[in-house]
């Protein structure tokens, strides 16, 4: 049965999609069966994983009941993917029925036994899509930058997490906070890190030991439909993300693998 991990932060630009790609790439490289679900109307994860997002069934169709979840699964180069596009932005207004928070969970349960991991990329907003992701997930990972605004996003997220744990998903846990674009030479980095530790304690979680440095390779990889792990396997960023995947999942990853 798959472990379901959702990447979340109310603030955009903190590395959620990049981290999703890297988790998928690292796990797929060692033979794990992985499904990535793009829940962001911008469709960045779909683009980054190199799958179709227009002339096909997407996660929007799953929410609307236009298809079963199996019909929306595409077999990408890295892993299986359920894509997203701008139509998903209308879901908040279109889904008004009782139990709308459970739609994703109920659909995923029908395919959960077919995968080792299911990775959910959430939008940078607190919406019905975010609530669906939390309700479906076993564990949350919160990427953040070492900036005050990024930290504020986590503080605002806290009440939503507590509400979901109380009303929709009592088994939901927060795996930890991942520090992205980490630069230990900056004074602000240390200050934000200290404050993040306080919030982590409030969420009954931790700061992951692995830190992800800023890298040109991370920015370039999506244009090639790859994760940084396959695009630049000998880069520092690839090594850091592989270390993070190991820390997150306990799965030993292949390091410095040759690019396919």
Judged by helices, strands and strand pairing, the structural class is alpha/beta
The stretches of 5 or more residues where confidence is low (pLDDT under 50) are none
SSE succession = EHEHHEEHHEHEHEHEHHH
Strand order of the largest sheet: 3-4-2-5-1-6-7-8
Give Rg in angstroms.
17 Å
Percent range for β-strand residues: 15-25%
What form results from the Cα inertia axes?
globular
The count of DSSP E runs of length 2 or more, i.e. the number of strands, is 8
The major β-sheet equals: 8 strands, mixed
List keywords for this structure.
single chain; 260 residues; alpha/beta; eight-stranded mixed sheet; 11 helices
In short:
The protein contains 11 helices and 8 strands. The chain is an alpha/beta fold and 260 residues long.
């Amino acid at each position: 049965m798959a472990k379901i991990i959702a990447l979340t932060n109310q603030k955009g630009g903190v590395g959620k999609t990049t981290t999703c790609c890297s988790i998928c790439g690292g796990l797929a490289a060692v033979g794990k069966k992985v499904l990535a679900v793009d829940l962001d109307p911008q469709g960045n994860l779909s683009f980054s994983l190199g799958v179709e997002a227009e002339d096909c069934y997407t996660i929007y169709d799953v929410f609307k009941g236009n298809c079963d979840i199996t019909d929306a699964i595409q077999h990408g180069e890295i892993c299986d993917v359920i894509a997203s596009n701008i139509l998903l932005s209308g879901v908040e207004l279109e889904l008004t029925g009782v139990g709308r928070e459970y739609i994703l969970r109920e659909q995923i349960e029908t395919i959960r036994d077919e995968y080792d991991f299911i990775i959910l990329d959430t939008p940078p907003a607190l919406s019905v899509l975010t609530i669906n992701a939390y309700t479906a997930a076993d564990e949350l990972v919160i990427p953040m930058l070492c900036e005050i605004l990024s930290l504020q996003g986590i503080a605002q997220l806290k009440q939503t997490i507590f509400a979901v744990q109380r009303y929709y998903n009592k088994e939901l846990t927060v795996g930890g906070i991942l520090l992205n674009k980490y630069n230990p030479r900056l004074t602000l980095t240390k200050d934000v890190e200290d404050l993040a530790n306080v919030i982590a304690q409030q969420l009954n979680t931790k700061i992951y030991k692995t830190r992800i440095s800023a890298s040109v390779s991370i920015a370039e990889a999506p244009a090639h439909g790859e994760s940084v792990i396959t695009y630049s396997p000998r880069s520092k960023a690839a090594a850091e993300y592989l270390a993070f995947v190991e820390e997150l999942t306990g799965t030993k990853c292949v390091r410095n693998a040759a690019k396919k």
